[in-house]
Specification:
- By secondary structure, this protein is mainly alpha-helical.
- The protein folds into two domains: about 210 residues, no CATH class; about 80 residues, no CATH class.
- Helices cover about 65% and strands about 0% of the residues.
- The N and C termini lie close together (about 5 Å).
Length: about 325
C-alpha cells in the first residue's frame, strides 16, 4: 500500500473545500455537542468574572474564624470601627456596636444560626461530592449515549464527502447511527473502546498503543456495522498493524496547525484546521481500508461497500 501523507492532505483539502459550509458546520456541531476537537469552540465561551469574584470571596472568608468574618463584614459596610485598646475610643462605639461584638464573641443565637447556615451551605463536603458525582454521571451518560454516536456519524459524513460523483453530503449524515439497528451497537462498541483505552492508560505506553490500535473502530462502525463487537476490535487491530507509528507521525504533523489554531483563539480551527484534519484522517483510514479489502484481512469482507469502493485501488 502507498502511504503518502502529502497525498492524503491534498485529497482531503479538495474533498472538504468542495462541500466547505457543511464540513465546517459538522465539525463545529460535533465539537460543541460531543467535545471532539473542542478546542476550536472555546472562543464562543464567555468569560464569567462573577465566578472568579465569588471564588475570591469564599477563599477570603475561609481564612477567618466565624466571629471574625461577621466583624469584618460589618467593617466593610462601615458599621464597626477598628478595634483598639483605647478605652476612650471603645466607648464611642455605642451600645449597638458593642452588642454586635458581644454577639460575635459570645456565640449567641445569631452566631449559631450563621454557623449552622455556613456549615450547611459552605462546609458540607458530602453535598458537594454528591453534586459533582451527579454532574459527572450526567456528562458520562451524555458522552456514551449521544456524543460517541455523533463522533461515528462525523466519520460517516467525511467518508461520504470524499466521493467524486458530485454528491454533496448532507449535515444530517452525522445522525447516521440513530437509524434502526445501528444505535445500540454503536453505543456498546464505543463504550468498550473508551473503557479499554482508559484501563490501558494506567500502563502509559500500553494506553498509547491501544489508542492507535482502536483508531479504526469509529470508521468501521460508520462503514459497516454488521460485525460483532469482538470482530470489530479484531479488524481494527488487524488494519492498524504496521501503521500505528505512521498514524502517530500523521498526528504530530498537524502540530503547526494546532499552534496557529491556538494563536487565533480557535477561529482558524473552526473554519479550516478541524475540517482539514478530519478529512485527512479519513483519507488515511480509506488507505488502510483499501489494503485490508485487497489482501482479504479477517472480517474485511464486511467492508465491501459500493458507495466507497469506486476508487478502492487508488492507494494500492
Amino acid at each position: 500500500m502507498i502511504w503518502d501523507r502529502k497525498r492524503f492532505k491534498e485529497k482531503a483539502k479538495k474533498a472538504f473545500i468542495k462541500n466547505y459550509a457543511y464540513t465546517v458546520a459538522v465539525c463545529f456541531l460535533v465539537a460543541f455537542i460531543a467535545g471532539e476537537s473542542s478546542g476550536s469552540v472555546k472562543i464562543i465561551t464567555k468569560y464569567d468574572s462573577t465566578r472568579e469574584q465569588a471564588a475570591n470571596v469564599v477563599s477570603q472568608i475561609s481564612k477567618y474564624s466565624d466571629q471574625q468574618a461577621i466583624i469584618d463584614w460589618l467593617n466593610d459596610i462601615h458599621v464597626v470601627q477598628e478595634k483598639t485598646d483605647n478605652i476612650e475610643e471603645s466607648s464611642k462605639k455605642g451600645l449597638y456596636i458593642s452588642a454586635i461584638e458581644d454577639c460575635a464573641s459570645n456565640n449567641t443565637l445569631l452566631l449559631r444560626q450563621y454557623e449552622a447556615y455556613k456549615a450547611f451551605t459552605m462546609n458540607d463536603k458530602s453535598i458537594m461530592a454528591i453534586g459533582i458525582g451527579i454532574g459527572s454521571l450526567i456528562i458520562l451518560l451524555f458522552d456514551l449515549l449521544i456524543g460517541n454516536t455523533l463522533i461515528v456519524g462525523k466519520r460517516r459524513f467525511f467518508m461520504e464527502n470524499r466521493i467524486k460523483n458530485g454528491y454533496r453530503t448532507p449535515i444530517g449524515t452525522i445522525l447516521h447511527c440513530f437509524k434502526k439497528g445501528l444505535y445500540g451497537k454503536t453505543v456498546k462498541v464505543m463504550f468498550f473502546r473508551d473503557l479499554y483505552t482508559f484501563l490501558w492508560m494506567f500502563t502509559v505506553i500500553g494506553g498509547i498503543i491501544k489508542f492507535y490500535e482502536y483508531r479504526a473502530i469509529p470508521y468501521i462502525l460508520a462503514d459497516n456495522i454488521q460485525l460483532s463487537k469482538k470482530e470489530i476490535f479484531m479488524l481494527s487491530k488487524s488494519m492498524m498493524k504496521g501503521y500505528k507509528w505512521k498514524f502517530f507521525v500523521l498526528d504530530i504533523s498537524f502540530i503547526p496547525w494546532n499552534i496557529l489554531e491556538t494563536v487565533t483563539l480557535g477561529i482558524v480551527g473552526i473554519f479550516y484546521v478541524v475540517p482539514y484534519i478530519a478529512a485527512t484522517k479519513t483519507e488515511a483510514y480509506m488507505a488502510i481500508r483499501s489494503e485490508a479489502v485487497a489482501i482479504n484481512k479477517p472480517y474485511s469482507e464486511c467492508l465491501k461497500n459500493p458507495l466507497f469502493d469506486e476508487n478502492i485501488d487508488e492507494y494500492l
